[in-house]
Design a protein that fits this description.
heterodimer, A: mainly alpha, Four Helix Bundle (Hemerythrin (Met), subunit A), B: 105 residues, mainly alpha, Helix Hairpins, 3 helices, 0% strand, transmembrane helix (chain A)
Chain lengths: 170, 105
């Protein structure tokens, strides 16, 4: 049952990810990214990681995609199809991705071809909370400092442009 | 469920992200491809966590990676807006301010 659910969610994720990467309309790509990330959240759910699935929907779909759409709006990105959406390196990039997929896929199949995931029944929020506050307290606190630094950095970047441009105009 | 299934899905998603980062010109699309690659990593972490019946160490690390992704996209989009204000475009190929000239021109 979980295998079937996982397969459906995984197929949706792969199709949506391909559309994100090849779509000519950038806003459509951002909206397909919602579908891809939501399908990956479904995969997390099928792997009995409900808490990670919920955080994925909350942070990725709720915050990151909205942020990307805001950036698209602020940069007045061309929302209609463009002739040159990819650079001249596109065939090279496709070759690199295909070779990488081949190598990684072969390695994964050779190493873990016969392993099975046993189904577990209990939820995961309790276990994650226990882990965070028992074994991973210091990384958790460092992450909060990192988020603060990213916040201050983003504000400083946007402030600096205005003052720099004013200096240039003077 | 065979363990290979989530691992192969992660490989495919990661390689789609690699193609997007290498091939696309728009910086925002490149950032979206970064998100796909980080999701592949999360899928690996969660799959291995479900395989070793561990006390959710992999899921904790996946949550940490999601937090890092949020910080990364915030700073990345701030830099993209900076590029747009300075140059009027978000084309990665045309952003050549840091280009090193090999010959003294």
């Amino acid at each position: 049952m979980t295998t079937a659910l996982f397969s459906v969610a995984g197929a949706v994720a792969v199709v949506a990810a391909v559309v994100v990467v090849v779509s000519r309309r950038i806003v459509h790509a951002a909206l397909w990214l919602v579908l891809a990330l939501g399908a990956v959240a479904g995969c997390f759910g099928a792997l009995h990681a409900e808490f990670v699935a919920l955080v994925q929907i909350l942070v990725y779909v709720g915050a990151i995609v909205v942020l990307v759409l805001f950036a698209l709006m602020l940069t007045k990105a061309p929302t209609n199809p463009l002739p040159e959406i990819t650079s001249g390196r596109a065939p090279f990039a496709a070759a690199v991705a295909a070779v990488l997929a081949l190598i990684l896929g072969a390695g994964v199949v050779l190493a873990f071809g016969n392993e099975k995931i046993k189904p577990v029944t209990d939820g995961s929020a309790t276990a994650v909370g226990t882990q965070v506050f028992k074994n991973w307290v210091l990384p958790f606190e460092v992450l909060s400092v990192l988020l603060l630094a990213a916040l201050i950095g983003a504000i400083a970047l946007s402030q600096r442009t205005e003052s720099a441009q004013r200096k240039k105009e003077d | 469920m065979p363990l290979v299934l989530p691992l192969l899905l992660a490989v495919v998603l990661f390689c789609i992200g690699v193609y997007g980062v290498l091939a696309r010109r728009n910086v925002i699309t490149m950032l979206m491809s970064f998100e796909l690659m980080l999701n592949a990593v999360n899928l690996n972490l969660v799959a291995f966590d479900a395989w070793r019946v561990d006390e959710a160490t992999g899921q904790t690390l996946a949550i940490f990676v999601i937090t890092l992704a949020a910080a990364e996209i915030g700073l990345g989009l701030a830099i993209v807006l900076l590029l747009f204000r300075g140059h009027g475009h978000v084309d990665a190929d045309a952003a050549r301010d840091l280009l090193e000239h090999e010959e003294a021109s």
